[in-house]
Amino acid sequence: MQKRRTILLTAVLGAGLGLTGCGAGAQQDQPSQSAGQHDGDEHHGGMEHPMDGGPPPAGIEKAPDAKYPVGSTVRLTTDHMPGMKGARATIAGAYDTWTYSVDYTPKGGGQRVTDHKWVVQEELKDVRGQRLADGTKATLLADHMKGMKGAKATIASSTGETVYMVDYTADGMTMKNHKWVVESEIRPAK
Buried (b) or exposed (e) across 138-147, using 16+ Cβ within 10 A? Predict the structure, then answer.
């Protein structure tokens, strides 16, 4: 009887740990960082996320009348990454383009990422002109995280809001040119 309880307890604990390891991290596209790991990258759902997002993609148009001009200080109201919600940020760029939430499996394998926010039209291969419909397949040119560039993606949703590149600090780490937040995800800083 004692052996049966031990086996049952081991099975229950093992299943619980397995479910915890397969949690919503990739679905919500949330990064995690191991203690003491400061290699210049943040882990985004198990994928590396650079601390400097680099320049905007070629061909993207600046928003001529952005609500938040470059240099403005704002407050982030989204939680694409831990520590982001409520953080003060500086607008590094404001652009007029279509912006997409995408689902994709990292190139080279890995856990499927759902509802990754955001990718702009100029970060999709061979896509020009009109807004893509939900469900459209596209190849990612964006290199926000390891395994993203070249991955096949499906458009989950889209918006025509002004999209911003921001600099902010969260959990003691500074992100430069973070791509992307849309206008409804920020508010004036107080």
Answer: bebbbbbbbb
Return the SS3 of 31. strand
Quick one: tokens of 90? 């500086």
Domains of the chain: 52-188 (2.30.30.1210)
The SS3 assignment for 21 reads helix
Phi, psi of 90 (to 5 degrees): -115, 130
Residue type, 150: G
Q: CB under 8 Å to 167, separation ≥6 — which residues?
A: 89, 90, 92, 174, 175, 176, 177, 178
For the stretch 115-171, pLDDT in tens is: 999 999 999 999 988 999 999 999 999 999 889 999 999 999 999 999 999 999 988
Per the structure block, which two tokens stand in for 57?
A: 């993609």
Among 176, 169, 106, 168, which Cα is nearest to 143's?
Answer: 106
Helix (H) or strand (E) holding 41: strand 41-44
